[in-house]
Amino acid sequence: FYMDKTKTKKVWYKRWWAITLFIFVGIGILGNLFGETDTSSSTSSGSNIQAPEPVLEMTTQQIFNEFSDLSEIQADEKIKEFKGKRIKTSIYVSKIDKASLSSQYVAMEMYEYPYNLMPYVKAFFPAEEKDDLLKANIGDTLVFSGEFVTYKKGGLTSYIEFTKSKVIEINPSE
Predict the structure, then answer these.
(1) Strand pairing of 56-57 and 86-92?
(2) If exposure means fewest CB atoms within 10 Å of the residue's CB, which of 76, 142, 147, 166 is most exposed?
(3) pTM for the whole thing?
């Protein structure tokens, strides 16, 4: 009968409400660590609906000319200046394929022989553009607008890359 009087109280961190609190705090921390890191994209996409950003019209040669004769640090700054800007341009379709490890598609203009395995321009298209891409044949001119991603300067070849591209028109080869 002495046992009833000396009933021990649970330590606060072993009580049900403390454990529940720990679980919620843990989920919050994990959400912050592994969640979407770029919060600016969600807020900027809302403003894009009201006022779409202007589209630059440039040939791929004009884009390459922007990077010619630049030092590496100058090229890095130029990439930052162009990054995310929507550019309307066109490519000679050398290859259209499903992009590896994603649901996107990629259309590429390749270099001439002997560098014909290297891309000159890569344009990534979301899955919604598949039906339009199916209408393009090798050798056609694909007019599209896409967000500039990067310019990669290589030892022998260089390329430019676009994402979130949208087909504007396809001009059949003659």
Answers:
(1) parallel
(2) 76
(3) 0.64
